[in-house]
Amino acid sequence: MSGADVYSPSGDKLGKIEDVALEKVGGEVAYAILSFGGFLGLGADYHPVPWRMLRYDVERRGYVIPCESDQLAEAPGIRREDLIGWDDSSVRDAIYAFYEPYGARPYWML
Questions:
Q1: Mind listing the pLDDT tens digit for each residue in 18-44?
Q2: The CATH number of the domain where 77 resides is what?
């Protein structure tokens, strides 16, 4: 899954899945950590995208999220150096407030 491409609904490649973040108690996947922008891995932004927003597209051989590039650029992000051991407790409300119009529901409420 790591390295899988991620696309917008219009078919533009947005980035790739760098990692996944697990919900600690239940062990479910909470987020896909998407790298977005940059060049050859440098200067990329990292966005935790609620896992349930991703849909696998067999033809594209990658995932589709319901955001276009300009919308994703406004999404809450995390720094590369925070990827290891990242804890969403301080930003989860902002993440779900951003993705709520796209139908995302918090993983702890499912």
A1: 888 888 777 788 889 998 876 555 557
A2: 2.30.30.240
65 and 12 in contact (C-beta within 8 Å)?
A: no
> Taking the model in full, what pTM does it have?
0.81
> Which amino acid makes up residue 41?
G
Range of the domain at 58: 5-109
Fill in the amino acid letter for 40. Answer: L
Backbone phi, then psi, for 17, in 5-degree steps? -80, 120
Q: How far is CA 49 from the centre of its chain?
A: 2
- Tens digits of residue pLDDT in 69-98: 899 888 888 877 777 767 777 788 888 888
Rounded to whole angstroms, the Cα distance separating 20 from 37 reads 18
d(CA 43, CA 91): 21
